[in-house]
Amino acid sequence: MNKLIRDGLVAILYSPGYGAGWSTWNQEYPEMVFDSALASLIEEEKYSEAEFYANLKWPDIYTGGLDQIRICWLPAGTEFRINEHDGSETIEVKNKIDWLVA
Questions:
Q1: Which residues are registered as beta bridge partners of 70?
Q2: Integer Cα distance of 76 and 62 in angstroms
Q3: Closest Cα to residue 23, out of 77, 73, 64, 78?
Q4: Strands 80-85 vs 70-75: parallel, antiparallel or unpaired
Q5: Half-sphere exposure of 3 (CA within 13 A, CB side)
Q6: End-to-end CA gap in the chain
Q7: Per-residue pLDDT reduced to its tens digit, 21-49
Q8: What is d(CA 70, CA 66) in angstroms, rounded to the nearest whole number?
Q9: Where are the domains of the chain?
């Protein structure tokens, strides 16, 4: 996987807006969360070019939430998952979860 890494932080692509999840609606391509070229286009707010690139690289994906994609920068090696509710994605970091105990 070709990740965009700066100062030890990895760019994670996710879609916090309601309507369509980016990675959660395209789970067969987990690399979409990390793609460095796509992250660079999103960072520059070049959404048309980003959609063109994504459709070339993954022709059968759903791109409905692409214009809502944001970047979350996490330290390299951080364990996380992306949760989705009504298309809105959130990032949950493994070691920051407060569990309840019965």
A1: 14
A2: 28
A3: 64
A4: unpaired
A5: 20
A6: 40
A7: 788 888 899 999 999 999 999 999 999 99
A8: 9
A9: 5-96
Rounded CA separation 66/77 (Å): 25
Question: Concatenated DSSP letters for 68-102?
Answer: G-EEEEEETT--EEEEEETTEEEEEEGGG------
Tell me the two tokens of residue 17: 């807006």
The pLDDT tens digits for 55-81 are 999 999 988 778 889 999 999 999 999
Q: Which tokens is 40 given?
A: 């660079």
Which pTM value belongs to this model? 0.88
Structure tokens at 100: 């309840």
Residue with tokens 């330290």: 75
Residue 43 CB partners (closer than 8 Å, separation 6+) = 11, 71
